[in-house]
Design a protein that fits this description.
Layout: H1 3-7, H2 11-34, H3 41-65, H4 67-88
């Protein structure tokens, strides 16, 4: 599913889709382990759809909270990137 289609859905619909995709990913992992998985590309597509839904839900949560919370989230992320860079140096 494309991100534009996902953005038209409500939060509850997205959460239901997320639950269904997680169940499908679980089943695909079992199929892979038992050697029954035929469409290996489906695993990747499911993972990406899950990521898209989680990204959209996060955007909405941060957007609904207002610009102050979104700015705080950005500064926290920037601090963690700087910390990782300092540790690796």
């Amino acid at each position: 599913m494309k991100a534009t289609e996902m953005r038209t859905k409500s939060d509850d619909e997205l959460k239901e889709s997320l639950f269904g995709l997680r169940k499908e990913a679980f089943n695909l992992r079992f199929q892979r382990a038992s050697g029954q998985l035929e469409n290996t590309a489906r695993v990747r597509a499911i993972r990406r759809d899950i990521a898209r839904i989680k990204s959209i839900l996060t955007e909405r949560r941060l957007g609904a909270a207002g610009p102050a919370k979104a700015a705080k989230a950005k500064s926290t992320k920037a601090k963690s990137v700087k910390t990782k860079a300092a540790k690796s140096a």
